[in-house]
Amino acid sequence: MGSEWQEVSLGDIFKVKHGFAFKGQFFTDTRTSTILVTPGNFAIGGGFQNPKPKYYKGEISEEYILKPGQVIVTMTDLSKEADTLGYAAIVPDDGNIWLHNQRIGLLEFKDSFPTDSVFINYLLRTNEYRSWIIGSASGTTVKHTSPSRIHAFKCKIPPINEQRAIAHILGSLDDKIELNRRMNKTLEAIARAIFKSWFIDFDPVIDNALQAGNPIPDSMAERAEMRRQILDQNQPSSSSFISQRAKNRKYSGGFDFSGLGEISIDEIYGLFPDSFQDSELGPIPKGWEVVPLSEFLNIIGGGTPKTKVKEYWGGNIPWFSVIDAPSETDVFVIDTEKHITQLGVERSSTKVLRKGTTIISARGTVGKCALLGRPMAMNQSCYGIQGKNGESDYFVYFVIKRQVSDLQRSGHGSVFNTIIRDTFRTIRIILPPTKLTILLEDTVHELMELMLSNLFENLTLASLRDILLPKLISGELRVPDAEKFVEEAGV
């Protein structure tokens, strides 16, 4: 570390400002562009996330509207290990109005000390700072920190130009991670839209019926009229358009969506019927069935190796529990917090499930879903789900995702709802022929594999960032060396 690095207290650089206690009567589940920042917006390890927006519909003082690029910290944490206490995040520039809520600290930087705010954001994600915050926290069940405790942390700061260079290196890695996340959100939406168009809205069947002159059920009249207008205008139907867009769309890195091979849209539609039949769930495509979920699913239980036997833990087999569930748009789980050994598998009721298995949490936090991006085991609070008769993995996943609310409502238990095997027998769904589920697999395969590739790349990028961060912030690694390190890593 050069002599130009200066030892300071954080209070010399910025002041932490408390947020406002917004009134609970104005909280709403209705989507608005006005969202309260809560501790849930802070990722473990630092950084901004938005898994469960808390919308607000009351009056707002301009003073408590956060600006994009501002640095915020969380000063309260409900988790046992205070997972996010004191960590920093940067307010995103995403078109939303983010509100400065109570127990969220806003960093107001002092003009007297030249500082790059992005650099400070990363400094507040180091182990040294984290240890200081946890060591000085108050509270037992709920952990708290305060502006004075944050201000008191001492560290060494490089000159402003080096701050900016460090911020650029680390920020570039986070920017790539965020780009991949956004891409995955788009890819998931396309795949989900194809599933919905084919198996929920029955667009190909409606289109075929219209072209054949067959009757349309009254309950589908509005949808059919929309489809008729599309056909009359010779526009591609939404399902065929989405499929074609999926085939043609390309991203950097050489990936393209060509999973359909040489099959044409007409050939795809030829696999769907051109009429409907009555069923207990209303009109369904001719030849399709209404069956209990359990009829076409293999439901696999999990288990936990004895925690006191160290030979069972710390191996190379990922072991899934609900805390490992991915975000809605990431879909896949590729790593877990805990790992077990082959001996742990052999001496417990857990099993190693193949890639492509759907997992759903069945106890505690019920209804969290994930697709396995690699083989892994799971605990007894989850079920692994696979098609029984050759149904495609992606079809199974999207069916289970759509049925989560029904599974939760049908859950058993006096205190906490629990999904048991019988729960899957109580819910009936419309099941297409297996060949159509395989067609879905072929159609969305490239999209889903690109999502998976992005997740693995993000794992590598995050690991690289976490290696560089403490070395750059401490001065152990200087900027030119870090730039060379990143280049050699192929990022």
TrEMBL record:
Lineage, highest ranks first: Bacteria, Pseudomonadati, Atribacterota, Atribacteria, Atribacterales
Domain Type I restriction modification DNA specificity: from-to ranges: 3-188, 285-434
Record PANTHER family: TYPE I RESTRICTION ENZYME HINDI SPECIFICITY SUBUNIT (PTHR30408:SF13), TYPE-1 RESTRICTION ENZYME ECOKI SPECIFICITY PROTEIN (PTHR30408)
Superkingdom in the source lineage: Bacteria
Keyword hit for Amino-acid biosynthesis: no
Keywords: DNA-binding, Restriction system
Protein name: Type I restriction modification DNA specificity domain-containing protein
Record-level Gene Ontology MF annotations: DNA binding
